[in-house]
Amino acid sequence: MRNSEPESPVSSITERLPSSDAQAPLTQLFESLRPDLLRFAQWLARDRAIAEDIVQESLLRAWRSRDALKDPAAARAWLLTIVRREHARLYERKRLELVSLDDIVEAQPGPRLAEPDGDLFTLRHAIMRLPLEYREPLVLQILGGFSTEEIAQELALSSTAVLTRLFRARNKLRVICGMAAAPDVPGASEAAS
Amino acid sequence: MTCEEVRLLIGAEPAFTGTGLEQHLHSCPACRRFREEMRALDANIRRALQRPPELVRRIRTPPPAIWRQWTLAASVILATLAVLLLWVLRPTDTLAREVVAHVQREPESWLEGQQVTAQDIESALSGAGVQLNITSDKVTYAQSCWFRGHWVPHLVVQTARGPATIMILRHEQVNARRAFSEAGMSGVIVPATDGSMAVLARGAGDIDGVARALQQDVRWLPGGH
User: Fold this and answer.
1) CATH of domain A115-181
2) What residues of B are in contact with residue A119 (Cβ under 8 Å)?
3) Rounded average pLDDT over B93-118
4) Nearest beta carbon to residue A167 from set B8, B47, B48
């Protein structure tokens, strides 16, 4: 359920499930990763309210499956994967309701958030406008830190297909930034692995 | 590796390094430049992604209420009517504008209070091909003025509502009465037997009354052109 002021997913968990002392570090770990998860979800969903729903639902799922997390050092990648799948589920479930770019614009940065150059704003806007098939692997790679093989596995694509999508994503941004487009990669397969 | 393979790899993973890639770059300046560009771009992409997109929903303008639509429509109609009124009252053509301009150039014509003589009137009418059956005690100004290539009579007559200017324009044809208002003057140009006549007054002078009287008082002489 989307609220105007959604409660913290982590708080929600702790309220519903009394945590023992042994679980407190995991709760804190989840909470510390929440900003990362939210930023990641926002770049996927392009809507803050939807992203917050996704993150909250993802943290609940993660909490229920917390026994699967053997190494806390892998928590970030694990949670990002859950967020991506939750977004994909939402995308499938509410395909027709997802945000149209016609309805949203990126807010102009205010004085406090003023960026040193307008190019970065243009680039952010261009990334936002990338189709999901290009935006998703790019965000997974750069924000998530996933390798090509990991992205391929997550997206059920071949490594070549992921390379092609990443190449095309950057090529589109390259043009937006005023550089000449590199020749496209002919015949690159995007077949599922 | 071929340039195509190298560029695919660089485009997908600008930070990637490998023996085969480095060997190719060593001998291919174009691909080397491509990597430099893509690495610079990638640094900016990383910076751009560090902040979540600050998206705002574009506010859809609600459809205006019915009364607003009617108000808007009424405003448009009123504005259209105002423009039409101004258009109707404007100097209808160059002739009207030039009549106004001519009168403005002779402001003393309005100020004369002394009656002109019959000879003055006759002199003003000379060469215009008209005779004027008007008593000289109404006329306070009578000149023959050069106007649009011809000498035309320029008279000022005193009426109950103040002075009115008459210009007898034998060489200017108009098809119908044309009223205009400009520079604080109202005027009318009416077709006549041969040519036309312009009557102007300041403010709300009785221009149509003068014009009607003038139709009776002017006699057009044959061959006056």
Assistant:
1) 1.10.10.10
2) 44
3) 82
4) B8
